[in-house]
Amino acid sequence: MIHLVFNTADIAALEAAIELDETLAGKVVEVKDDYAVGPILDIYETEGYQLRRDWWKNVLEFSPYAEQLDIVDDKLTVHQLINALNHDENEMIWIWMGQNAHDVSGYYWFMSQVKEFQGRIQVLYLNNLPFLNEKGQLFYPTYLSQIQPKEFLKAKKLARPITLSEFELDPDEWKKLCQENEGVRFLEGGKKLVSLHIGCYDKEILSLLTKNAQKLPSALSNIMAKLKVKLGDAFIVYRLKAIAEEGKIVFVGDWTKGWKDMVVQMPGGSSTIVEAETV
Question: Which of 101, 208, 210, 233 has a C-alpha 20 to 30 A away from that of 264?
Fold first, then answer.
């Protein structure tokens, strides 16, 4: 059995669950890219793939993750998974996804490439399902990593094969999104993704900046804690740069030295850095 997840934090959560239940024993593999953002036109073709890598290179410039672009190779991951399925006719893949655009986009991207293995690809979609948190209270997780390991043992009962109908219809839905090629995919509900403009979260991001100047890492921490939709920090910085180009905020510092000492402030606002302030 091979478990497929879409977030690094999900790996540890699932591996902890596997330790509690040997029937889940298997390798946990991660699809590393976030297909909910960025260009996806002709994504399975060399040109489209390279355009996406170039976009990510721009997004990750001067970030702590600039070097990681070279180790993200989801095409190789799919190749290795297909080889595993071809090598062992009893091998199965379980796709685990939470109710968020990141996971659902990754699901569409992956499953559109493995139709020939219909019947051997299981999906566990934790869509609008209640789980118990550490305090024993019911909650509805959006990411696998929010679930306690013992709660995964209940979730495993939800595993079901991707149906032939889904293998026919879901790739068409993904193809439509690829052709629209907007900058963001937003999850409306179920598995319904809609295309939105790359700047669709800019207003909310801007509203979460304080009136006083902040070091960029502090501003990021506050934004990520309060955004209604979870976005990666590199993508948020990418959008903050776009907002700065519009003159709505100002960055002070040397980007080539990284994020650590960059300061973000409102035009004409106080230059006094107030790290503890939140909105």
Answer: 101
Please give the residue range of the domain that contains residue 57: 2-177
Q: Strands 184-189 and 121-126, how do they pair?
A: unpaired
Q: Cα separations (Å) of 207 from 47, 229, 243?
A: 37, 14, 12
Is the domain of 166 the same as that of 207? no
What would the pLDDT profile of 59-117 be if each residue is shown by its tens digit? 999 999 888 877 779 999 999 999 999 999 999 999 999 999 999 999 999 999 999 99
Higher pLDDT, 169 or 128: 169
